[in-house]
């Protein structure tokens, strides 16, 4: 295994983002449409938070809605804002971090995704799934 491979080689570069002005209904639709579990919340290109599908499950019955369903229970979502639900003070990594460094961070923390930020702007996202897929290719 190459220990010095850059995270930029496995990160997702086509990033789905939200702004804190977006609503939670939009967030759920993005999670389901793109089959993702984490969405960085940005102001311009700067990461100000992270929203996970688990965050939505904590406040709603989102998991009770069929994955192909486009209607969601907006009553619960109208009670909260993205800013209230998102994780603030997000840990980020730069694109030149090694895969090993990122794996260590994810292994020690309670989250499963890290925004990749260069010069204050988001350039990607790396998840535990990205790391698992990388390992599968090596085996």
Overview features:
139 residues; two-stranded antiparallel ribbon; CBS-domain; two-stranded antiparallel sheet; 6 helices; alpha+beta
Polypeptide structure, described:
The structure is a single chain. The protein has a single domain (7-138), classed as Roll (CBS-domain). It contains six helices and four strands. It has helices spanning 24-34, 53-59, 74-77, 82-85, 99-108, 128-138, and strands at 38-43, 46-52, 113-118, 121-127. The strands form two sheets. Strands 1-2 form a two-stranded antiparallel ribbon. A two-stranded antiparallel sheet has the order 3-4. 27% of the residues are buried. The model has no long low-confidence stretch (mean pLDDT 88).
């Amino acid at each position: 295994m190459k220990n010095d491979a850059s995270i930029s080689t496995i990160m997702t570069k086509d990033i789905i983002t939200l702004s804190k002005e977006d609503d939670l209904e939009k967030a759920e639709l993005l999670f389901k449409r793109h089959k993702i579990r984490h969405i960085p919340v940005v102001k311009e290109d700067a990461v100000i938070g992270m929203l996970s599908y688990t965050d939505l499950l904590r406040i709603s019955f989102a998991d009770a809605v069929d994955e192909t369903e486009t209607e969601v229970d907006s009553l619960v979502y109208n009670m909260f804002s993205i800013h209230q639900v998102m994780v603030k003070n997000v840990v980020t990594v730069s694109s030149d971090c090694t895969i090993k460094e990122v794996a260590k961070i994810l292994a020690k923390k309670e989250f499963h995704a890290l925004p990749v930020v260069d010069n204050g702007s988001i350039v990607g996202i790396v998840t535990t799934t990205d790391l698992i897929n990388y390992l599968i290719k090596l085996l």
